[in-house]
Amino acid sequence: MLVTVNETGRAVKVVGDPSHPVTQGFLCGKVAKYLDRVYSPQRVLYPLKRKSGAAKQLSNAHDSSSFERVSWDQALDEIAERLRLTAERYGPESILPYSYAGTMGLLGYGSMDRRFFHRLGASQLDRTICAEAGGQAWNLVYGRKLGTRNEDFTHAKLILAWGANIHGNNIHLWPFVEQARRSGARLVVIDPYRTRTAGLADWHIAIRPGTDAALALGMMHVILRDGLEDRSYIDEMTYGFAALAERVREYTPERVASWTGMRAAEIEQLAREYASTSPAAIRLNYGVQRSENGGTAVRAIAMLPALVGSWRERGGGAQLSLSGGFQWNRSALERPDLMLASPLGRTSRVVNMSRLGHALTALGCDPDDPGNGPPVHALIVYNSNPGAVAPNQNLVRRGLQRNDLFTVVHEQFLTDTTDFADYVLPATTFLEHEEIQGAYGHNFVQHSAQAITALGEARSNVWLFTQLAARMGFDEPCFRDTPRQMMQQALDPDESGLSRNPGMAHISLDSLASEGYIALRFDAKPDALPFESGALETPSGKVEFYSDQLAAAGLDPLPAFVAPTESRHSVAAEKFPLEFLPRKADHYMNSTFANLDGHRRMESATAQKLEIHPEDAAARGIVDGDRVCVWNDRGSITLVASISSRIVSGVVSARLDWGKLSSDGQNVNALTSERLTDIGAAATFYSTLVEVTRLT
Ligand SMILES: Nc1nc2c(c(=O)[nH]1)N[C@H]1C(S)=C(S)[C@@H](COP(=O)(O)OP(=O)(O)OC[C@H]3O[C@@H](n4cnc5c(=O)[nH]c(N)nc54)[C@H](O)[C@@H]3O)O[C@H]1N2
Ligand SMILES: Nc1nc2c(c(=O)[nH]1)N[C@H]1C(S)=C(S)[C@@H](COP(=O)(O)OP(=O)(O)OC[C@H]3O[C@@H](n4cnc5c(=O)[nH]c(N)nc54)[C@H](O)[C@@H]3O)O[C@H]1N2
Ligand SMILES: [Mo]
Question: What was the pLDDT predicted at 195?
Answer without folding.
Answer: 97
